[in-house]
Amino acid sequence: MNAQALQLFGVHLVGATPENGRKLLLSIGLVLAVGAATWLLRRALRSVSRESWDSRFRFWGRQIVSLLAAAALILGIVSIWFENPASLAGAAGLVTAGLAFALQRVITAAAGYFVILRGKTFNVGDRIAMGGVRGDVISLSFMRTQIMEMGQAPPEQGDEPAMWVNSRQFTGRIVTISNEKIFDEPIYNYTRHFPYFWEEIRLPIAYGEDRQKAEQILLEAARNHALRRDGFTQGELDDLERRYQLSLDDIEPRGYWRITDDWLELTVRFLVPDHGAREIEDAITREVVAALDEAGIGIGSSTPKMRITELPPVRVEGVAG
Fold first, then answer.
1. 3-state secondary structure (DSSP) of residue 286
2. CA atoms of 92 and 98, how far apart (whole Å)
3. What SS3 class is residue 148?
4. pTM of the model
């Protein structure tokens, strides 16, 4: 039996030796030192970010600090406890096999984190759809992604999960999703490379109404409030055309007609920025409704209209008391 083993009430403690105690103290000191250094670096980043107000700078700064802290802890712990490379290889094999079996989902989530960063799938501030959740990414860590959830536009109301906000505005809920979802389903990024949306407003017009005037009203309202070609610099226009193979005519509001059984459906398609689409749609809708009322153009409806033009004579009879 090892004479250097520590004893408690005459009982030899397995593995408890002065050498192991020294290594334990060194490990605790390393953890405290790395924790203090991480805290100081994050405080320094916060002080710098107050001046720059760059959310992406803050995000990447936090990620770099976290990665450096994790690497320092791993290397430091391994250096303290494993002096013999042969014992290190054997222990690493056992630990790796155990972790791979017991922490499969955790390892997958951590792998998803590096895939997200390396593949530039999304970043903090991007508007994405992931794991059935739509919204803006507010936090990304080794295991999970946090999203500020947003509501659904009317065409998406049947999708899961159900929402009570009938537009792409925040619901107030913060949803946490495991990074492993990146391997199970597609990730939709609305804003990473092209921070714009195409929106549509549909207007049913009865066949007897002035459809040409109605289309003119729709297009004028969209041109007054949506993004147009003259709202971009020439460099931005060249980049849109070169990078996204986007025709510059697609930037301008366009009108389309569709025949239905009940009315002629007029659709205006226009470009909006990634945030503030509802305000633009609201402004267009208000202008369109006011212009239609002024022009005397009615909006089509599937509800049948009944008009009473004449009442038959009514005779009231009573019994004398």
1. helix
2. 10
3. strand
4. 0.60
State the DSSP H helix or E strand holding residue 197, giving kind and residue range, or none if neither. strand 196-205
Long-range contact pairs involving 26-35 (C-beta distance under 8 Å, separation at least 24): 26/80, 27/76, 27/77, 27/80, 27/81, 30/72, 30/73, 30/76, 30/77, 30/80, 31/73, 34/69, 34/72, 34/73, 34/76, 35/69
150 vs 168: CA distance, rounded Å: 6
Q: Does domain 196-295 bear CATH number 2.40.170.20?
A: no
pLDDT digits (tens, 9 = 90+) for 72-108: 887 887 777 666 655 556 656 666 666 666 677 888 8
Digit-coded pLDDT (tens) for 47-77: 765 554 566 667 667 778 887 888 888 788 7
End-to-end CA distance of the chain: 121
Residue ranges in 226-311 assigned as alpha helix (H): 234-243, 277-295
Domain boundaries, the chain: 18-87, 127-189, 196-295
Give 121-135 pLDDT, tens digit per residue.
Answer: 888 888 899 988 889
Phi, psi at residue 116, to the nearest 5°? -60, -45
